[in-house]
Amino acid sequence: MPLYPEGKEVVIHFEGRLIDGDVFESTLDKEPLRICLGNDEILEKLEATIQTMPKGATRTIRMTPEEGYGEYREDRIITISRELMPPIGTIKSGQELVLRTPEGEELPGIILDIQDDSITIDANHPLAGEELEFTITLVEVLDSDAEEPKSEGELGLAE
């Protein structure tokens, strides 16, 4: 049973790790993250966990790839004619960019290969196919009229 209604703002500290222990994101050495529950700002399982936590509690959860950023999909490795690419300045392998589908959806991508006439891009999320572990501390549950600035962060941004 959720402790907080949709629209309730909460403040959390978190650390996201791969199963091997490598940290991919954390607020532990910076400002905590402020989120609004029910707004698809974070991964569903993270929000569901926060919904069951009293203020001050810390929990660690694991996520399968399906619960996180999905399985790694070979069909998301795409080759695009350089003629179709908008001018983006100097490009190099390993560079991150954002692709926009004809429907307007934004897909993050990493350039894998550059040829004279084409560019190969991996449009999988960088954490696709990975099992993840998050440790979350619910720092504060805000009143509706709280006027604190929103903190920036990338914790499990919904896609």
Polypeptide structure, described:
The protein has 159 residues and is mainly beta. Helix content is 4%, strand content 36%. The strands form two sheets. Strands 1, 2, 3, 4 and 9 form a five-stranded antiparallel beta sheet that branches. Strands 5-8-7-6 form a four-stranded antiparallel beta sheet, with no helix packed on it. The radius of gyration is 18 Å and the shape is elongated.
Set down the secondary structure blueprint.
Layout: E1 9-18, E2 23-26, E3 33-36, H1 44-50, E4 58-63, E5 77-81, E6 96-100, E7 106-114, E8 118-122, E9 132-141
Antiparallel strand pairs: 1-2, 1-3, 1-9, 4-9, 5-8, 6-7, 7-8
- Secondary-structure arrangement, i.e. CATH architecture of the largest domain: Roll
CATH topology of the largest domain: Chitinase A, domain 3
Q: What's the number of structural domains?
A: 2
Q: Helicity, in percent? A: under 10%
Average per-residue pLDDT, rounded, comes to 88
Q: What is the H-and-E element order?
A: EEEHEEEEEE
Number of E-state strands: 9
Structural class by SSE content: mainly beta
What Rg do the Cα atoms give?
18 Å
Number of helices: 1
Strand content: 35-45%
Q: In one word, what is the shape?
A: elongated
Oligomer classification: single chain
Question: Separation of termini?
Answer: 25 Å
CATH class of the largest domain: Alpha Beta
What are the segments in which pLDDT stays under 50 over at least 5 consecutive residues?
Answer: 146-154
How would you sum up the major sheet? 5 strands, antiparallel
